[in-house]
Amino acid sequence: MHEASIANSILQIVTDKLSTTPHSQAARRVHIIVGAFRNVDLDSLQFAFDNLRGLYHGCVNCELEADMISARAICLEGNHKYSPDFAHAFRCPVCQGPIGKLLCGEELDVITITLEANPVEANSMEGIFNA
Amino acid sequence: MHESADEHTLMRILGNNEELAAHNREHFDELGLWAINLMSAPGAGKTRLLENILSSWTEIKPYVIEGDMVGELDAIRLRRTGAEVLQICTGRSCHLDAQMVGRVLHGDSLQGKDVVFIENVGNLVCPAEFWLGEHMRIVLLSVTEGDDKPIKYPVIFHKCDAVIFTKCDLLPYVDFNVATAASNVNALNPKARIFEISAINQQGIPDFVSWLKSRLVKYKDERRSELCASPSRPE
């Protein structure tokens, strides 16, 4: 289950962000995107994330928000843009051509991390995160 | 409630693995080593194919990195060919990653070698996600697995340079249509070279090894050109 490796990588990115952001004490949410052409099962990733987050400083209450990005491709033979899928054996539904180039669907990125401010210092740090 | 705010921070989740893999690639290139990552489901014949390659391609000085969850069975088999073999036991992990491979690259063992064969953990899913720094990816599909596997496991077949249908001596006994399998590979990866082999009767193995030889020559030519173009090249 390589989703555990991916969950660890996400949590490492979150703790790195925490450690380099002044006055932050914990992570509240991390938003990621996952392309449909990656071997990532979102339920498995959620399970791994929920079980690993307690091991990372400041992440025990961090929620994972994951969005799947559909794959889009240009076919090799007709230059048609299409969504490769299992139903068409990943071929272009117009001309049956193979995938020439994937335009999207291979994403695996952290987009946003929501951090919680230290309550003692919060009053004096207005605007820091929006800088 | 404490104040909170969003940090927009586009970062590649496997960026750390990719950096380590790029470092591995630099190390391979510095040593003039061509690295091949062999991937397949368990039992498709990676070790058997390697035995055939190592026995028939005697002009090269090979090094093998063997990935398995537990044990050294495959490494012991491959050492019988005379090749130097290093075993990586991944424990609970279902794939090799760049850090595991990087840890074993810095000894003296790689000096003077031509080709590194990396036999990944048997798995058609996870290994595809982790670049190790290799120059070439080869996926094996045994005819006993079925001709539909490329479209059931599309990512690994989309991201490879060659696909080898193995155990072709069993074709008369199994429901595997070579044309269908090839079409399914082609739908995902029209540039992939396809080979049909049998380690039992040697069908296709000479052709495959010839192709590997030609690709090694191409790699060495490219390396030579890069070194000649390098401004830091000593006079």
Question: Can you put this structure into words, describing what you see?
Answer:
The complex is a heterodimer of chains A (131) and B (235). Chain A is α+β, with helices and mostly antiparallel strands. In chain A, 25% of the residues lie in helices and 31% in strands. Chain A has three helices and six strands. Chain A has helices at 3-20, 42-52, 119-122; strands spanning 24-35, 63-69, 72-75, 81-82, 99-104, 108-117. Residues 122-131 of chain A have low confidence and may be disordered. Chain B has a single domain (15-219), classed as P-loop containing nucleotide triphosphate hydrolases (Rossmann fold), CATH 3.40.50. In chain B, helix 7 (178-188) links the parallel strand 7 (162-166) and strand 8. A seven-stranded parallel β-sheet of chain B has the order 4-3-5-2-6-7-8, with helices on both faces. Classes of the chains: A alpha+beta (131), B alpha/beta (235). The interface between A and B is large, with 45 and 37 residues.
